[in-house]
Write a structure and sequence with these properties.
The complex is a heterodimer of chains A (147) and B (426). With 147 residues, chain A is α/β, with parallel strands linked by helices. Chain A is built from four helices and ten strands. Helix content of chain A is 27%, strand content 27%. The longest helix of chain B has 18 residues. Classes of the chains: A alpha/beta (147), B alpha/beta (426). At the A-B interface, helix 1, helix 2 and helix 3 of A face helix 2 and helix 3 of B.
Chain lengths: 147, 426
């Protein structure tokens, strides 16, 4: 087991199976099928992301460097959280980008209750260490355990 | 974050619970990026990125309703990105059915909400709101709460306004609050360049290709570009602004650039020169071979890479009046050389409704129509962003459209040859 310390963006605790994107997550492309065409498993639709394309994101601990793509990204994350079609948590190795940051904050402020724990600034070592299928536990204070 | 008494009162609910949440959104967003204060939004108008009445974004309509019902309306009116559908654009029966009955079935409902929230004009739908005909052109030094990436990079770089690369919805929050957090591209330090780009090409680089190369290299950093003024000159005339519009959109979509400086051309580079460059700036040299390398590395994600194109889109971001005129001349000339009267691939030029209105007053309008080109206000990206259109072989000279959809990129000259002569190298 290895423990990483990051910064809390949205509070909460959870244990979930890791899903890892080594490249930036294109939010619009990744969530489009889930939101637009009713895919309840939230299958990643981004053809340019070989790590995630075709994989179920619902209920997973999504590990990534940052998000990329359209500036509708924050709005897409907000909608995903509101509709319950989101990962169990999002864990960023880098400081969160302005698009994902906006979406997470909007969800935390406008939606009832904490919808999705988010931790950022976990470091490059976190993304190098974590592998798909590992068990991740997010604890209070930005502590992330990887088993 | 240090707040003024007025800001504290808004946060504490002096203007109601909804306005308090608006302030919470803006403050917490700023705190993520180390902002220590809020600064007033000073532009005359706002611009919003979320223009489409997609059925999927029900939570956004609920949020907008909360704002309307609480009277949490901005003092600014706003333009916003292009409409997602236009009956003039070629589409088959199934596509039309899906666009109108399923995907964008909430368009009228959403536009009604937008009118209540401060839409500046019923035709103010364009990604290029800064074009003169549209009337939403910020002044140098204006602080903005925009989110459309191509508009943000243009406003920062060409107009000298100040705006971060915000996300949709946080754009309207800043405008309603009247304040945005002071960080990143709003600060003098955040506008300094951490990359020097040296242009050493043998001819004027293709705007969309050069922007793509720089965007992919520097990602979200600020580049200071040297040697481009030899091709663009030192004046921001219509042709140069159109070039920078397309160049900037490519830097913003192929990377995440929110601001660039061009030596001897863009306003801050003209004023401050090398003082805008950080001491430890990295260097990226771009020559003909580098541009070719970038071009050759674009993946072709058509099912059949040799398929005959079924549609050509030009105008992502929307074309300027000058571009519509110059492309009319080029198409006529190329058609005449090929002995053709009309374009051989269905072709759509997209522009702002206000620009189209001005273009229709010129003699160019009838000439362009005679070539068979369709002129539309649509957002090509929204048109393409569904599985039906995703399977179509669509060509474009927009590197933004290439990045976000299955459209295939060609240079302007190649596009011209394709649509007028039927082959890339014809």
């Amino acid at each position: 087991m290895k423990v990483f310390q990051g910064r809390v963006v949205a509070p909460g605790t959870v244990t979930a199976e890791a899903l890892v994107s080594h490249g930036g997550l294109n939010t619009l492309a990744s969530f489009q099928k889930a939101l637009q065409f009713g895919d309840k498993t939230v299958t990643c639709g981004d053809q340019n992301n070989p790590d995630l394309y075709g994989k179920q994101m619902l209920g997973k601990a999504l590990c990534l460097p940052q998000t990329i793509g359209s500036t509708t990204g924050g709005m897409v994350l907000y909608c995903a959280c509101s509709m319950g079609r989101h990962p169990a948590c999002m864990l960023f190795s880098k400081p969160i980008d302005s698009l994902a940051g906006a979406g997470i904050i909007l969800g935390d402020v406008w939606l009832e209750g904490a919808k999705m724990p988010v931790v950022d600034s976990l470091g490059d070592e976190f993304l190098a260490y974590v592998k798909e299928g590992m068990t991740i536990t997010v604890k209070d204070g930005g502590i992330v355990e990887v088993n | 974050m240090i707040l003024t008494e007025e800001q504290k009162a808004m946060l504490d609910g002096a203007q109601g619970e909804v306005m308090s949440k608006v302030m919470q959104s803006v403050i917490r967003y700023g705190e993520l990026f180390g902002a220590e204060k809020l600064v007033p939004v000073t532009s005359e108008h706002n611009h919003l990125v979320t223009s489409f009445g997609l059925k999927m974004i029900g939570p956004i309509y609920d949020l907008m309703n909360q704002l309307i019902e609480a009277g949490a309306i901005s003092k600014q009116t706003f333009s916003l990105d292009p409409r997602p559908v236009d009956p003039k654009v070629p589409a088959n029966f199934i596509q039309k059915l899906i666009f109108n009955k399923f995907m964008y079935s909430k368009q009228d409902f959403y536009e009604n909400q937008l009118e209540q929230l401060g839409l500046m004009d019923k035709n103010a739908f364009t990604c290029a709101c800064y074009l003169d005909e549209v009337g939403n052109k910020p002044k140098k030094g204006d602080v903005l709460s925009w989110a459309e990436s191509s508009a943000v990079v243009y406003a920062n770089s060409v107009l000298g306004a100040r705006c971060n690369r915000n996300s949709g919805i946080i754009d309207i929050m800043g405008s309603i609050a009247g304040y945005v957090p002071y960080f990143g591209l709003l600060t003098d330090e955040g506008r300094k360049a951490s990359w020097i780009i040296e242009i050493k090409t043998s001819k004027k680089p293709e705007a969309q290709l050069l922007g793509s190369a720089i965007g992919m290299k520097v990602m979200e950093d600020v580049p200071y570009i040297k040697g481009l003024d030899q091709w663009l000159g030192s004046e921001l005339n219509d042709a140069t602004c159109a070039y920078l519009k397309d160049f900037g959109a490519a830097t913003a979509s192929n990377g995440a650039v929110g601001l660039y400086h061009i030596e001897n051309l863009t306003p801050e580079a003209k004023e401050m020169g090398d003082a805008l460059i950080k001491e430890d700036a990295q260097v990226y040299v771009i020559d003909d071979a580098e541009l070719q390398r970038v071009y050759d590395n674009y993946p072709v994600i058509w099912k059949n890479p040799d398929a005959k194109p079924k549609l050509c889109f030009m105008g992502c971001p929307h074309m300027s009046l000058e571009q519509l005129k110059s492309w009319t001349d080029r198409i006529e000339k190329s058609l005449a050389e090929a002995g053709n009267k009309k374009v051989v691939i269905p072709t759509v030029f997209t522009s702002a409704p206000a620009v189209i209105e001005e273009f229709e007053k010129t003699e160019y309008a009838a000439r362009l129509k005679a070539t068979g080109v369709v002129l539309s206000y649509i957002c090509p990206l929204m048109y393409m962003n569904n599985p039906l259109c995703g399977k179509m072989p669509v060509i474009t000279s927009s590197n933004k459209l290439r990045t976000y959809t299955t459209a295939r990129y060609y240079t302007d000259d190649e596009i011209l040859a394709q649509i007028t002569k039927g082959g890339k190298d014809a």
